[in-house]
Amino acid sequence: MSTQFHPPLRTLMGPGPSDVSPRVLQALARPCIGHLDPQFIALMDDIKALLQYAFQTKNALTLPISAPGSAGMEACFVNLLEAGDKAIVCQNGVFGARMKENVERCGATAVMVEDRWGEAVDPQKLEDALKQHQDAKLVAFVHAETSTGAQSDAKTLCALATKHGCLSIVDTVTSLGGTEVAVDDWGADAVYAGTQKCLSCVPGISPVTFSERAVAAIKARSTKVQSWFLDMELVMGYWGGASKRAYHHTAPVNALYALHESLLILKEEGLENAWQRHQQNHLALAAGLECLGISFVVPEKSRLPQLNNVTIPAGIDDALVRKTLLERYSLEIGAGLGDLAGKVWRIGLMGFASKQENVLLCLNALDNVLIELGANHQPGEAAATAARAYLVPNQKLEVFEN
Amino acid sequence: MSTQFHPPLRTLMGPGPSDVSPRVLQALARPCIGHLDPQFIALMDDIKALLQYAFQTKNALTLPISAPGSAGMEACFVNLLEAGDKAIVCQNGVFGARMKENVERCGATAVMVEDRWGEAVDPQKLEDALKQHQDAKLVAFVHAETSTGAQSDAKTLCALATKHGCLSIVDTVTSLGGTEVAVDDWGADAVYAGTQKCLSCVPGISPVTFSERAVAAIKARSTKVQSWFLDMELVMGYWGGASKRAYHHTAPVNALYALHESLLILKEEGLENAWQRHQQNHLALAAGLECLGISFVVPEKSRLPQLNNVTIPAGIDDALVRKTLLERYSLEIGAGLGDLAGKVWRIGLMGFASKQENVLLCLNALDNVLIELGANHQPGEAAATAARAYLVPNQKLEVFEN
């Protein structure tokens, strides 16, 4: 084609990217300045402070990695592990398997603690593994499994790691900004996230934070970090608090404008309010889905409000439903991933996209498509009515000022 | 501060990021869509085709890495090298040293071929090293050294590598779009670039291209690539030509809108015209700088037109000049890097910023500041006059259509 690309206006209710706030898009398009410009350095300091707020941490080493969440994950593993180390990886979905890959590519050994996909990580199994592998250096797990929609008890898991002398690596890609992430309270050592989920920012950047214990472990390494790009000691030279910032790589300037704006929006709303909004809209969606005869994969107590994994009704063509929603309503919902491919849909209510209009749009659009495809369920009126009971009359809206 | 960030409007004439085209900023801010959306998949195909044009290659494995140029460099090294391999690295500036770091972090050995900073790589020295190290697997060099402003003869160096049975890795971060990059004609095997230089795009993405020989070498590896994020076999699963795109990581959707637009602009202008424009504006700047008594670091035949490295006149305070240019004229020029820190300025005329207005702005602003600081040179009128002889009356301007 080679003509200008004008994307359709979608409603993004998949596992991410989620809808980007117009404020963030506007920030993204501001004029580029140099990555060593004094005004940019000041912005970096502000981004660090806002990330500390979002992560609820005082960690000095808190910054955005200049690449997507997968690189944030890799940054944690390659900095904390050396060849010959042992790591315990809790797996209850796709991203635990990716952690295993990371461990092994560091030349380390992964001890796997497995739970059923859709369940939270079982602390007892982790403790058993910690007792059995006293030479383990760290424990890694996913707080909010994007592939299944299950949330694990990060505080308990981190405490177990610490008790047994291990560092912890926690994936909060899907949780940050949507459900509570409390890095200092958890005692977590290395935590990474993504921008394209509950932060309502564009994809491509990965916020990370490292505890003092983690920094000490990095400084105590006997070998160099295998990735030059992700070597935190080098990255710190640019992002650190020193008055002179050393060039490491060219920061993605405009993407950081966007991240800054998204963090500002989060702070304006307040963390607790954001979590509450995600929860409320989830309850509304869940009530409506139930009326459509659609059930959740994850037990109620572990459900992520921002990512609703539901079983595809019997006899329904997965791909056709998603295609029809996209083409007719410009609505994107997510397919299943890994073992759950073809079996589930992943309906996101993340960040800016977690709003009442989207709950109603999704319920009504899905209702229409399912009826057309011959699904046997109660009429959609009931779904909308069921959802209405949970909709908040005065839900706080993001203020858009130009 | 934690208030909205509104960057100043700069003129970016450093080593990058360079001024971003308003068309690119506009593309960047278009609504985000899913990274598996059919329309996004179509855009990816178009980006690949446009990158093939920019790189002048038919290589199927041509795509943008979702991270800055340093990650593009790392992608080339970690995919082509395994522990125990030997690589010959030609160094004539900062980025050759970074290549050495990459080689060593792969567990491989780097044989260094060194040239004076500011000179092109000497093919004879490379050939001597190739004869001496017949077990070398690859040769790596920087086509356009961003730290010195020198361009090397990529075709000759790649041919030497091939003749001696080696693969070649070529850094074209600063050259792509500014001077000729001809991947197939060179016979180069792995080439990486950046978006924030002569492509007039925002920083954060690294276009790469791999030859069939390079792909065969990747497929013949006996060990996994040490980086999961940069493993080209996995990245290919998403970017490859297959009808079904496998999820690897979430693509930086909006940054790819921007890259697409910047490549479209390059194609509209035409590669040869873009090179000619860079050369013409360089000649104008060089004539003017000469009048200001400022001399070039690089011999004329190896000078990069897009990055003018000049010696700071004796007795002039480097930092004060740059600070004054920034504060008074909102003009950024670059400091020296590595061994050249404090000794040179790097004046970029890259992509959208390579235009006649900028030549005149830079000459006049520098003239004013230097006179104020007591430099002894001919009056600025002469510089502008000297430059004028090279300014083209009808230089083609980028067309901005909304």
Keyword list:
homodimer, 402 residues, alpha/beta, Aspartate Aminotransferase, domain 2, Aspartate Aminotransferase, domain 1, 2 domains, seven-stranded mixed sheet, four-stranded mixed sheet, 14 helices, 14% strand, globular
Using the coordinates above, name the CATH class of the largest domain in chain A: Alpha Beta
Largest interface: A-B, 77 and 77 residues
How is the main sheet of chain A built? 7 strands, mixed
Roughly how many Å apart are the termini of chain A? 34 Å
- Oligomeric assembly: homodimer
Gyration radius of chain A (Cα, Å) is: 21 Å
Instruction: List how many beta strands of chain A DSSP finds.
Output: 13
Descriptive account of the structure:
- Two copies of one chain form a homodimer.
- With 402 residues, chain A is α/β, with parallel strands linked by helices.
- The first copy, chain A, has two domains: 21-267, Aspartate Aminotransferase, domain 2; 272-388, Aspartate Aminotransferase, domain 1.
- Chain A is built from 14 helices and 13 strands.
- Chain A has helices at residues 22-28, 38-55, 69-80, 94-105, 123-132, 154-163, 183-186, 212-219, 232-239, 253-269, 271-291, 318-329, 356-372, 380-388, and strands spanning 11-13, 61-65, 86-91, 109-114, 138-142, 144-145, 150-151, 167-171, 190-192, 206-210, 307-311, 331-335, 344-348.
- In chain A, the strands form three sheets. Chain A has a seven-stranded mixed beta sheet, with helices on both faces. A four-stranded mixed beta sheet of chain A has the order 1-12-13-11.
- In chain A, helix 4 links the parallel strand 3 and strand 4.
- In chain A, helix 5 (123-132) packs parallel to helix 6 (154-163), helix 11 packs parallel to helix 13 (356-372) and helix 13 runs antiparallel to helix 14.
- The radius of gyration of chain A is 21 Å and the shape is globular.
- Chain A starts with 10 loop residues before the first strand and ends in a 14-residue tail after the last helix.
- At the A-B interface, helix 1, helix 2, helix 3, helix 4 and helix 10 of A face helix 1, helix 2, helix 3, helix 4 and helix 10 of B.
